Amino acid sequence: xxxxxxxxxxxxxxxxxxxxxxxxxxxxxxxxxxxxxxxxxxxxxxxxxxxxxxxxxxxxxxxxxxxxxxxxxxxxxxxxxxxxxxxxxxxxxxxxxxxxxxxxxxxxxxxxxxxxxxxxxxxxxxxxxxxxxxxxxxxxxxxxxxxxxxxxxxxxx
Length: 157
Prior knowledge:
The protein is an alpha/beta fold. The protein contains four helices and seven strands, in the order ββαβαβααβββ. The strands form three sheets. Strands 3-4-5 form a three-stranded parallel beta sheet.
């Protein structure tokens, strides 16, 4: 049998009939509330920790890490609620930055940043691109204990 995975980047694969147990898919879950309400509820009622607004002070500098355009996380839907919590705590926009945690992926275009983060966040906040290939934007933290892997986080951290 030839099977085409449901991803644009995947080519069809040939699977011998003797090796195919079946093709399975997940069921569909219907949320009890619209996504925006569910996010607001989760941000307002965190599990095992106080609300974000009670953990920050107006003088704090905030760096929010976001995944990049290669991940489907709906940051554009989540980020406004996080920003509301920060603003309610008195944190000003100029104290909030977002870094795109792109790993070794290319930098995102402005259009991709708007799609990922939302137009308001991109226009109001400083959005940084992680540059894994720019040593000046990284610093050496040390190595991991067991494997001795070098750790080079972004200086924005």
